[in-house]
Design a protein that fits this description.
The N and C termini lie far apart (about 50 Å). The chain has about 375 residues and is an alpha/beta fold. The protein is built from 14 helices and twelve strands. A five-stranded parallel beta sheet has the order 3-2-1-4-5, with helices on both faces. Strands 6-7-8-9 form a four-stranded antiparallel beta sheet. Strands 10-12-11 form a three-stranded antiparallel beta sheet. Strand 8 and strand 9 form a beta hairpin.
């Protein structure tokens, strides 16, 4: 029998986990590496419901599992020593667990790397730990273009828009992944389970003030709180202030579905330690104008469903961002990005310096990528 290896958190064990293990075990004897409590806290910025010892006991009790253990390392590759010792034939992951750094490790070690979509067993409902957690209804957000114009030290040079989409928490995005995770944690602290009823802009202001209390050294841009609270697609126009002058929402279901079908996410490796995105900045009027124009072009292309124009503006916005904030990317990120460019229409990175996602605009599926749902 071949040896098959999988690794993950496996907190709040559910039918989706069991189906995943059974599918992986179809390739051979299944060995499971479990993330320690410390590792999960470092990656997710939250404690597990069950301790690593409890999770190990439950996973080992499953008939599809040959053996299991708690990984001794840390970070996304906390299983590095264990996989070298086990020398499996196959490393099996779901598409939301895929990462280029995992794939590269398997190439280096001569291990077959298999990525599959999550498939529930029979007629059972699709399950995820995220959806079972109490805070699961608080959304995340992605900025499609114009990011950084919500900061006065950028929009003071030239006004412009930030385009955001509010996304359902179908995946538990890692802390500091560029999905407004820090603002979302504050939203969970403030509202616990979901966005409450009430005027949406007022609620966003409440979240913004709650996160940026007096004495805050670095003020999080208001696109974070607005992107979480306002459903759909929103155009936030800034002119040298912390709050946008105008907010233009789009909640047309057909257009939102069109966006969802063409947006693809690939997880990146962790952010480097001692990382400072604000180091070595090059903020100028010319770059602010360039960023503002890219956001306008992106907005117009989306309105008429011009996917080629959207992709070009999407990329132009990203390039304007990294021209002003070069620490948003690293040579490693750019190397991975190069492998995808020939097959997609546009690209950007979330999660400055790593820890986030490569985000692509494409008419055709991007291999091993995940897709999001926009909150209606």
């Amino acid at each position: 029998m071949k040896k098959v290896f999988v690794s993950g958190c496996y907190d709040m064990l559910h039918s989706g986990h069991v189906a995943f293990f059974e599918e992986a075990a179809g390739y051979g004897d299944l060995y499971v590496g479990i993330g320690s409590d410390k590792t999960i806290y470092e990656l997710k910025a939250r404690k597990t419901v069950y301790s690593d010892k409890e999770r190990l006991y439950m996973v080992k009790a499953l008939r599809s599992v040959k053996d299991a253990w708690i990984n001794k390392g840390s970070g996304v590759l906390d299983f590095r020593d264990e996989i070298k010792s086990l020398q499996p034939d196959i490393f099996f992951v779901n598409n939301d667990g895929h990462s280029p750094i995992k794939e590269q490790l398997c190439k280096d070690l001569g291990i077959e790397y298999i990525v599959r979509k999550r498939i529930p067993y029979g007629n059972l409902p699709s399950r995820s730990t995220t959806a079972l957690r109490r805070e699961c209804r608080i959304p995340y957000r992605i900025d499609l273009a114009g990011g950084w114009l919500d900061q006065p030290y950028v929009s003071k040079y030239y006004p412009g828009a930030v385009l955001t989409i509010c996304i359902e928490p179908d995946y538990e995005f890692n802390d500091r992944s560029g999905m407004s995770t820090s603002s979302r944690k504050k939203a969970v602290e403030l509202w616990q389970t979901d966005i409450p009823e009430g005027d949406r802009e007022t609620l966003a202001k409440m979240l913004f003030c709650f996160e940026n209390q007096p004495g805050t050294k670095y003020v999080s841009g208001s696109q974070d709180s607005l992107g979480i609270v306002l459903p759909g697609l929103n155009r936030l126009y800034y002119r040298g202030g912390y709050w946008p002058e105008t907010i233009e929402p789009v909640n047309d279901p057909e257009l939102l579905q069109w966006i969802e079908q063409r947006l693809w996410l690939i997880p990146l490796f962790p952010r480097l330690t001692d990382f400072d995105v604000l180091a070595h900045t090059n903020i100028s009027k010319n770059e602010a104008i360039r960023l503002s124009k890219a956001a306008d072009d992106c907005w117009q292309a989306i309105q008429i469903k011009d996917v080629t124009g959207w992709g070009q503006a999407f990329t132009a916005s990203f390039e304007a961002q990294i021209a002003m904030f070069p620490n948003m990317v690293t040579p490693e990120i750019l190397n991975v990005l190069e492998t995808y460019k020939p097959n997609v229409l546009g690209w950007k990175v979330s999660g400055a310096g790593g820890g986030g996602y490569l985000i692509f605009v494409s008419e055709i599926p991007v291999e091993n990528a995940i897709q999001i749902r926009i909150r209606r």
